[in-house]
């Protein structure tokens, strides 16, 4: 016997769904004799049903939020795998990984300096800046701003240094010019250009 279609669900599916919720489904003859709106005498049944819905609706919302978190966590897993340098077998596609790397490139690529020499009255020598590319993509150009700081905390000089052709999973080190003044340096990445990432 074929089930009768009613809307988008089959009656059999509705009965199963309502059974899982603990609600009894009226028989076919009840459709014809009982109205859709309950009378006052069925007040306890109505309160039980509304209590079930009050409990069920937040449960459904929580499930939806959890699904969104899990789905959003896929890109977080990819990002954490990229930062740690370990391959992520759960990473779905190259396009997805490229998008995550593209969106977070400034946090992934790092810049460091060596233990340079400085004089107490001022003067920095032997400064080398290193750009580290932990991604699987070629970086065509990385521009680093290096600021020489005086002993009183003021800025003595600012220089830009371009690093070209940094291969995937590698680092590039360049020597900076010596300075007659300054006791420390600050450095930061200003721009990153990469054809592989569309930057």
If you had to describe this structure to a student in words, what would you say it looks like?
Helix content is 37%, strand content 29%. By secondary structure, it is α+β, with helices and mostly antiparallel strands. A hairpin with a 5-residue loop joins strand 4 and strand 5.
Blueprint (SSEs and pairs):
Elements: E1 5-6, E2 9-10, H1 11-21, H2 28-33, H3 43-84, H4 94-103, H5 105-108, E3 110-113, E4 117-118, E5 124-125, E6 128-133, E7 139-149, E8 155-166, E9 170-175, E10 184-193
Antiparallel strand pairs: 1-2, 3-6, 4-5, 6-9, 7-8, 7-10
Helix pairs in contact: 3-4
Structural class: alpha+beta
> What is the number of strand segments?
10
> Can you write the helix and strand succession as a string?
EEHHHHHEEEEEEEE
Query: What is the number of helices?
Result: 5
Mean pLDDT reading: 75
Give the gist of this structure.
The protein is an alpha+beta fold. The chain has helices spanning 11-21, 28-33, 43-84, 94-103, 105-108; strands at residues 5-6, 9-10, 110-113, 117-118, 124-125, 128-133, 139-149, 155-166, 170-175, 184-193.
Keywords:
199 residues, alpha+beta, 3-stranded antiparallel sheet, 37% helix, 29% strand, elongated
């Amino acid at each position: 016997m074929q089930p009768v279609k009613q809307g988008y669900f089959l009656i059999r599916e509705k009965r199963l769904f309502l059974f899982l919720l603990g609600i009894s489904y009226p028989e076919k003859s009840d459709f014809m004799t009982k109205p859709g709106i309950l009378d006052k005498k069925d007040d306890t049944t109505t309160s039980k049903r509304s209590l079930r819905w009050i409990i069920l609706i937040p449960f459904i919302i929580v499930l939806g939020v959890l699904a969104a978190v899990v789905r959003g966590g896929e890109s977080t897993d990819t990002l954490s795998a990229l930062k740690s340098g370990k391959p992520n077998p759960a990473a779905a596609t190259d396009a997805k990984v490229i998008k995550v790397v593209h969106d977070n490139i400034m946090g992934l690529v790092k810049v460091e300096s060596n233990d340079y020499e400085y004089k107490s009255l001022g003067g920095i020598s032997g400064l080398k800046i290193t750009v580290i590319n932990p991604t699987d993509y070629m970086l065509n150009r990385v521009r680093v701003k290096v600021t020489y700081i005086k002993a009183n905390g003021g800025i003595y000089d600012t220089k830009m240094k371009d690093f070209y052709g940094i291969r995937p999973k590698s680092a590039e080190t360049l020597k900076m010019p010596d300075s007659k003044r300054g006791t420390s340096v600050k450095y930061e990445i200003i721009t990153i250009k990469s054809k592989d990432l569309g930057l």
